[in-house]
Amino acid sequence: MEHISHLFAFSHFAIALVALTIMVLVARTIVAGTKYSSLLVIVVFGLGMGALLVKSGMAQPGLGDFPVIVLMSQTTVIALIASFFVGGQEIKRLLSKQKLSGDDEFFVPSTKEVIVGTNSTQLTFIVRAFFLLIGIQTADVLISGRTGDFPLGDSFLLLSYICLAIGFIYIDNRAKAQNRPMYLRKGLVEVMAIIAVLNISLWLAGVVEAYIGLPQIFFAMILSSGLGMLLPKWKLGPTMNALLFAGIPLVLAGSFLVGGSHMIEAFGIPGLQSVIVYGFAGQVFWMFGGLALLIFAGKANDLRNLAPGMAGGLSHSGLTGACTAGDFGRTASSRAPIMINIPFAGHIFVFTILAASAERDALMIEWTLPLIAVGAAFVALSLKNLRKADGCEGTEIKGLMQFSLGWQIMAVFGSFTILSIAGMSLEHASMAASSGLSHFGLFAAVQEGMFGATAASLITFTFAMTFLVHPLVFGMFGKAAESNGQMAEKAVMVLATLGLIGVLYSTMII
User: Fold this and answer.
1) CA–CA separation, 288 vs 310, rounded Å?
2) By percentage, how much of the chain surpasses pLDDT 90?
């Protein structure tokens, strides 16, 4: 009967492949011809479909009936490793003032549209990214000996082999590469490097667990960023290109489906309403509050500054995906990996203090308050530099790096401190803070169980629910893209004010 279980696994694999890739492609078709990001549609599409699957009786909350979709939602770290690596490269080039010559000619994507809104190379990236995410995840689980923790663990060897093989050989024949065999071999090296980073980071997390519960993503960030800084001249192969373009959209599509499946039941869980209220209010306040500072105090009202600045300042999963996919232009796309990596240097404090707080089951406010002040100082310095940038790329990047670090510290520790003082448990505060910022680092840490099993099981729902604010966020960014990069100043100020009122209200109902 074992062969039946393997057929069962591959039927679920086929369902997930079709469901998730179609979701991404449909979203791209809907926003085709506009300046809006496809993630705007994926948010609503995923949540609605997840809820409908449960309402129709096809699945139970958590989508345990669709284990490959659940597996996809757990590949956050893999998608982020690609961004961290490129961010490390960009930081090294920035510090050493290096220029990567010939990069544009090494791989030239096709511009032939095969589906409305998607050219042949982009379609290849989306499909390949699905195979790579599942293949790398299953290979990582096999190597680390954790197959017993997964419903389809007995079939992971076959899944890994097929996915990695297809991910290796599948390439767009319309695209041009200087040396196609070398380009493909680069993809194989990148797969092996990602698997190595995953296993080493998991091992390191286990080594320090007896002393402090740092999550795997913390070490994965350090290792992948470090590799990027060591290899600034590495020209990206098909693995990195696919994960940068489609990794985060696919992971979010899976996460939203899983989160949407919890939508109906979760509203009845005691205490979760205040988590959701803060998640919605925090999304508005921290996003538009940061934009207000950049626009009014930093005089940096242009998408090339706003999009990467807020992607880094909040480790914002949606904006990060939109920037790396090129939705806001090439300048924002090249700056985003830098801004994403810089705040993660501050995560030495974030994860250390939060891990120690989790062990005490109470936030260490005596540490968070001074750090909030340090974050505010970085923000003030960044705004000063941005005001005097006058279009100078180096000064703008320097200011955005300082803003990303400072605003991240203020947003993360500010959220936890406000919620703890208001009386929310640390377990619920972890869900509220990660959801209120759309913070992919905190999301991954909570998903790994850093703040307990209940938070780990519900984070996909709370994280996905607050993404319903993202149509507003992406709508504002899309409108700015259609207005020569200028965001509507009055609307930003009004939304920042409403967000502040919402945050204050959320603390009153805890």
Assistant:
1) 9
2) 53
For residues 353 and 347, what is the distance between their CA atoms, to the nearest angstrom? 9
At 451, is the secondary structure helix, strand, or coil? coil
CA pair distance 224, 83, nearest whole angstrom: 9
Distance separating alpha carbons of residues 78 and 135, to the nearest angstrom: 11
Contact 249, 38 (CB under 8 A): yes
What's the whole-number average pLDDT of the chain? 88
Interacting residues of 465 by C-beta distance below 8 A, sequence separation 6+? 47, 259, 263, 266, 276, 279, 280, 435
Q: How far apart (Å, rounded) are the C-alpha atoms in residues 139 and 349?
A: 31
407 touches 313 (CB < 8 A) = yes
Element (H, E) at 504: helix 489-508
Contacts of 138 (CB under 8 A, 6+ apart): 71, 156, 157, 159, 160, 163
Give the side-chain half-sphere CA count within 13 A for 280.
14
**Beta strands per DSSP E along 93-231:** 107-108, 113-115, 118-119, 176-177
Specify which residues 176 forms β-bridges with: 108
Q: What single-letter amino acid sits at 154?
A: D
Among residues 293, 499, 243, 275, which one has the least CA distance to residue 404? 293
Q: What is the pLDDT of residues 469-509, one digit of tens each?
A: 877 888 888 888 888 889 999 999 999 999 999 999 999 98
Q: Who contacts 105 (Cβ-Cβ below 8 Å, separation ≥6)?
A: 178
Contacts of residue 300, Cβ cutoff 8 Å, sequence gap at least 6: 294, 306, 309, 386, 389, 396, 399, 400
Whether 117 and 27 have beta carbons less than 8 Å apart is answered as no
Lookup: tokens for 117: 């809104």
Q: Quick one: tokens of 310?
A: 């807020």
As a whole number of angstroms, the distance between CA 132 and CA 239 comes to 7
Question: What does the block give as tokens for 450?
Answer: 């850093």
Q: Collect the ranges in the chain with pLDDT lower than 70.
A: 1-4, 35, 98-105, 266-268, 344-346
Please list, in sequence order, all residues whose beta carbon lies within 8 angstroms of the beta carbon of residue 266, skipping any fewer than 6 positions away.
61, 272, 458, 461, 462, 465
Identify whether the C-beta of residue 310 lies closer than 8 Å to the C-beta of residue 495. no
For residues 510 and 324, the answer to whether their CB atoms sit within 8 Å is no
Residues 6+ apart with CB under 8 A from 320: 83, 248, 311, 336, 340, 440
Q: What is the largest CA-CA distance in the chain?
A: 70
Structure tokens at 114: 């095969």
Whole-angstrom Cα distance, residue 434 to residue 446? 8
Query: Dihedral through CA 238, CA 69, CA 204, CA 243, nearest 10?
Result: 20
